[in-house]
Structures are given as structure tokens and as C-alpha cells.
Amino acid sequence: MRDVTASLTTQIQALESYNGHVQQLDQQLRDADSTVSAGAVFDSIRGLYASTVEDELDTPRLQETGDLAQATTQAIARMTAEAAADLDRLLGVPNPSLPRLG
Predict the structure, then answer these.
(1) pTM, rounded to two decimals
(2) How far apart, in whole angstroms, are the C-alpha atoms of residue 84 and residue 86?
């Protein structure tokens, strides 16, 4: 019975961890979507293509936007890997049979 309890406890912990990572990933994706929807990335890219001196002043903003996009991408990749590790842990948990009574 201890093996069954330990197995179920480990499975529940893995599922709770997975759920937390999926929720964090969902929030990161919503944040990234709202950033893109706000147009900062596209505004910066348009500034890069423009050739006036005034537009060249937007280069620091383009760099900041690029850094933000890279950080967001890395956070999403990290959270996806952590959720995958939760699933791997869940798949590796042995499932002992319940003892037969009687």
C-alpha cells in the first residue's frame, strides 16, 4: 500500500507542477501577444527600414524591443522545457498494482 501511496503522491505532484508551468506559459504567451499587438516591435522595425536621421534615433528602442523579444522567447522555451520535464517525470513513475483483498 505504501508503494501505491508514494506513486500516487508523486503523480499528483508532477501534475500540479505541470499545471503551474502550463499556466505560467499561458500568461507569458498572452503577455507576448499583447506586446506584439501594441505594435512596439513593428514600429521599431519600420524605424530600422527608414533612412532619415530622425529614424536612426529609434535604434536604442529597437535594441530594447529586440532584447524584450529575446527574453520572452527564452522564458517561453524554459517554461516549455519545465512542463515537458513534468510529463517525463509523470511517465517515469511506476504504477504498482493495488493489492487484491480477500
Answers:
(1) 0.60
(2) 5
Cβ pair 44, 62 in contact under 8 A: yes
The Cα 79–Cα 73 span in angstroms is: 10
d(CA 90, CA 87): 5
* Within-domain flag for 28: yes
Overall number of domains in the chain? 1
Query: Does 78 have pLDDT greater than 60?
Result: yes
Look up residue 39 and give its DSSP letter: T
Cα 19 from Cα 75, distance rounded (Å): 17
| Domain contains 95 | no
Q: What is the pLDDT of residues 30-75, one digit of tens each?
A: 887 776 666 666 666 666 666 555 555 566 766 777 787 788 888 8
**Backbone angles phi and psi of 31, in degrees to 5:** -65, -45
Residue 12, pLDDT > 60, answer: yes
Amino acid in position 57:
L
Specify the DSSP class assigned to residue 81. Answer: H
